[in-house]
Known about the structure:
Layout: H1 24-55, H2 58-65, H3 68-95, H4 98-133, H5 138-153, H6 155-170, H7 175-198, H8 204-227, H9 243-275, H10 279-315, H11 319-346, H12 348-355, H13 359-372, H14 377-391, H15 396-416, H16 424-428, H17 430-456
Helix pairs in contact: 1-2, 1-7, 1-8, 1-10, 2-5, 2-10, 3-4, 3-6, 3-9, 3-10, 4-5, 4-6, 5-8, 6-8, 7-8, 9-15, 10-11, 10-12, 10-13, 10-14, 11-14, 12-13, 14-17, 15-17
Amino acid sequence: MKLPFRPGAHRSSFEIDMTNGPLVGKTIRFAIPLALSGILQLLFNAADIIVVGQFVGPQALAAVGSTSALIQLIVNLFIGLSIGVNVLVARYYGAGQRKDLHETVHTAVLVSLVCGVVLIFLGIALSRPLLEMMGTPEDVIGQAVLYMRIYFIGMPVMMLYNFGSAILRAVGDTQRPLYFLFIAGVVNVILNLLFVIIFHMGVEGVAIPTVISQCISATLVLLCLVKSDTVYRVELKKLTIHKDKLLQMVKIGVPAGIQSATFSISNVLIQSSVNSFGSIAMAGSTAGSNIEGFVWTAMDAFTQSTLSFTGQNYGAKKFHRITKVVWYNLLLVTGVGLVLGVGAYLLGTPLLSIYSTDPEVIQYGLERMLMVCVPYFTCGIMNVLVGAMRGLGSSLTPMVICIFGVCVLRVVWIYTVFPLDRTFLMLFLSYPVTWVITALIEAVCLFFIRKRAIAQAGGMAADQD
């Protein structure tokens, strides 16, 4: 069923017309708020790490940091479904299909809450056994388990925020999620300082504020969707799971989630190798990883831009625009990755000093950042190519490529190359090597996937602005 208006008409001021007009300015307009939103999300964790590192101690810092790869491992399979939501909403919005769009939005909101409840039980039950499998030191594991269990209590609202934001991103609205996260981020930082410095709490003093801030951001996103007068408005009484839409979300989202979860498995193995160097090395890796996260988030904005712009133009059958979308985002992500990645490494010592003043912690952090931050733009290129393939409806192919190119090769590296020279530099050299190999394979596959998508959509008949 078609919308009773053109997809470009009756937009709110926050939306972006992705299927008409110049692309570069719109891509930047889309990406900047998204990058800032991601940075604010990282600040939730950064605030946790800085506060415990400065006011509690290295063991608490290691405890909070050592959980990140494990949390991602458990959560990413479910977060992958939000990518399916993004692709479907963008496609139906670009094609002007009101009924399909309505059903997708309402299915997404309800599925997010169900996934969040499931994650509560998974996180609480699996936190200690998985941390033990990772070889987490005895002086760290108790605090790490406590942090994880509190963190997972907030999973329903975290899922709701991610799925709701995916809906807004699909129509080009990246500004309001930024505002919501800013409000939640301010609350998070204030409560961190209050609970740890004033109430003398440990890791629980940073975990509880994180959950509270997630509740705030999720509530604001839901209110935004409920109060909207657009075609993607959420009506709470109409929340239901439409089987066909769920299956399409699963088809696109589950491979993306499996890919992310598999990445996390390799990162868990990396973390286990880091753990073997002791708690000081763990603290340095944690601080370096947190700084890298800001660079990755800025680059990931262009991955999301590629996903949404490709999805809408695929729905509108404007395939020549998809080619431009990919090239513009590749150029932008390379520039941003080089500037921020190299800049972060050059400023590594003062940046790492924010997390810890221990010289050994700083040295370990610098070694990690040299191998990860400086060549990080290659990871951005890899992810933009993945975003283009998923926007065209192909999720299984990039999953297989990434599992082999990044995960399998990285595991092989850990068990073959790393033992030859057990240093931080050799351990983290596995990252850029696998990024480059994976990106080359993806570029070849994207050429054929685009060609197939055009054929399946009936050729280039609608491929005009």
